[in-house]
């Protein structure tokens, strides 16, 4: 197992370097650069000023040299400096990371737990009205565009009903401390996290339902019935565990998006996370910030791929052996 | 019919199929009884309804299939009238069941002893520690080597035979009065099958159980049955003592079934050496490697085909026989270059098939075609039959119109109506599909046909027809045939010479009569001795 993990980590590092390199070229292929944007905003778009900025940011060097400098930094976990924000990129990301992780993890847990539960319920009542209801709601969640659902949620629960705060991470000027602050953040979290979780909740539901139904036709379920086991036990021990294998794969995919997958939600709910950081950096051609966010997202995807594979080995003895 | 020793009496049982099925009742007006201490075989082809009464007994019928008349009396209780709770209490405790596929019948994610312990748990018996101890005792009783280790294994870590032993251990756990065995040896190799049949017979005697043994195989019946019930299309057509039914079948259907079983007697073949050589294989080797590479962990190596040489004469049928994992299918796939051999040559008209590439390979490949095992999976469900057959010739430059005309002729040749050309595969039965598969192989006018388990998925009566067809076509078109099979009876019937393979090696190669009458290697001998029903046949012949 340790050997497996070590090999996979080495592999991940190689892939990560490749991704960084690819991102680097992609970003530089887009028109405009941070110097041009800054010079434009300063209203002094003359050649000399532009040249000064470029020299300051290192943009005057050949592209390959720039890549070399950047890669050398990344290897030492130095993600560069944002001239725009006048802060090291790593620090910027580090500041924003907790808010994003809180949001995406909450969405992850909500969608996984509720989606799986709804899938199990639907599969146990297949063809009955409750199954139809659950499947229809799931289809609705699946088909609704995220930003629209987010705006509607704000309109309904925040503006109309005034039950929950509609934007931000905590009440501005609230100055809560301790438990009161936790409660305040939790209230702010409910709307964005549920909206962000809708899509995956629907996917988990449909996958769990299909998988439970498929497994329940397999021979070993018949064996379990022939033993005289009670239906509830057969559901839990025999069907559910086997049905969870594809769900684990999917959860791994979703977990990989924990860092980069909340751009829209963070924008709509004014959530101070990585998504917002990335959105702003894109508008400002803030290369280093963008590359930094991509780097962290990619690392996250690789990390959770690894976690999924390890989980798979824990759940399925056949994979452990091969 | 009140026999005191009957543990089970089925009277006038009728089980309805859902609307749209090919007949209204899966089982219609079926009556039989099962006595303590006997083995009753229910025999029938696929779709005969042979498993249905057993499933009804256990309350395990598929959805939408339900009993509509009759009763199933277990002692004096009608099982059809029992509540689900009461029936569940009987399952596993009084009536136990084992299935065809021991791999899929065990939960892949649970250890063996946990699965056996569940039987006790289901009926609230023993403490968890005692359950484990009993599990090991049961594994010992069914003859699993190293029971302590097997108890902690997962199903995939055991062989097919061991898995079926685990299933049997599980079924025996609560000393049931009735054991239902639904085709328990069909998925096993012939030598393993012989061991499992012996085990079931031994345990039956030791525990005095009544065994209901469901099978399609008369060889197995001859081996194990006390009494037999023959089923056709949901009805019992013949019922009696095993010896009587096998030796003096009364019903036409039973006679037809028994006649269709390939006989072990092999005719003396013509001398193969006098024939022209159609194909020569020299030192064929294929090794599978998995894992390894930069990050793949330890490499696993399987020598599937190990330095094999043989000649195939023009107009000859050469059997390649072996158990699963013997490498017989790999040989077939290397011959048509579906797989590239690692070493060796396959000489066909002076060309080495093993090393050809590109256009040259495409041309030569025309003359060596393949028929596959699964008549369902081997035809594209979205293509019409005409297209399936004509595709090959069209790819080799035959004008479409001509190719379709030829396809119609071929359908006629294999005994199907030429109008089949405009229909889809799902409209045909298994046997008909296999005929389509043969027509497809013939479309390119090959000299050699490789048939990989081409009749293994077919019922015995259909199998006999397809074997006759192959034999007839071979003579008419002067084809040479490589016939790959696990079934020695089939090999005995159709092959001139037989190559016996074991673990990638060619153990023995000789005329069919030599192989069956004077086998030289121990392995061949053990294979032949394991053929079910062989002794009875010898006795009848002798």
Automatic annotation (TrEMBL), chain A:
Pfam families according to UniProt: BPD_transp_1 (PF00528), BPD_transp_1_N (PF19300)
Membrane-related topology note: Multi-pass membrane protein
Keyword Transmembrane helix among UniProt keywords: yes
CDD domains given in the database record: TM_PBP2 (cd06261)
Family: Belongs to the binding-protein-dependent transport system permease family.
Species of origin: Roseibium aggregatum
Lineage per the UniProt record: Bacteria, Pseudomonadati, Pseudomonadota, Alphaproteobacteria, Hyphomicrobiales
Residues spanning the signal sequence: none
InterPro entries linked: BPD_transp_1_N, MetI-like, MetI-like_sf
Residue ranges constituting the ABC transmembrane type-1 domain according to the UniProt record: 97-312
Protein name (Swiss-Prot/TrEMBL): ABC transporter permease
GO biological process, one term: transmembrane transport
Transmembrane segments: 12-30, 97-121, 133-157, 185-204, 243-269, 289-312
Subcellular location per the Swiss-Prot or TrEMBL entry: Cell membrane
Cellular component, GO annotation: plasma membrane
Domain of life: Bacteria
Keyword S-adenosyl-L-methionine: no
UniProtKB keywords: Cell membrane, Membrane, Transmembrane, Transmembrane helix, Transport
Chief localization: membrane
From TrEMBL, chain B:
InterPro entries with a match to the protein in the record: AAA+_ATPase (IPR003593), ABC_transp_ATP-bind (IPR050319), ABC_transporter-like_ATP-bd (IPR003439), ABC_transporter-like_CS (IPR017871), Oligopep_ABC_C (IPR013563), P-loop_NTPase (IPR027417)
Main location, first listed in the record: membrane
Compartment(s) where it occurs, according to its Swiss-Prot or TrEMBL record: Cell inner membrane
SUPFAM superfamilies per the UniProt record, alphabetical: P-loop containing nucleoside triphosphate hydrolases
Domain ABC transporter residue range list: 8-258, 279-528
Keywords: ATP-binding, Nucleotide-binding, Transport
UniProt keyword ATP-binding, yes or no: yes
Keyword Nucleotide-binding: yes
Gene Ontology terms for molecular function: ATP binding; ATP hydrolysis activity
GO CC aspect terms: plasma membrane
Topological type in the membrane: Peripheral membrane protein
Domain of life: Bacteria
A GO BP annotation: transmembrane transport
PANTHER family (UniProt xref): D,D-DIPEPTIDE TRANSPORT ATP-BINDING PROTEIN DDPF-RELATED, TRANSPORT ATP-BINDING PROTEIN
Family: Belongs to the ABC transporter superfamily.
Protein name (database record): ABC transporter ATP-binding protein
Provenance organism: Roseibium aggregatum
Record lineage: Bacteria, Pseudomonadati, Pseudomonadota, Alphaproteobacteria, Hyphomicrobiales
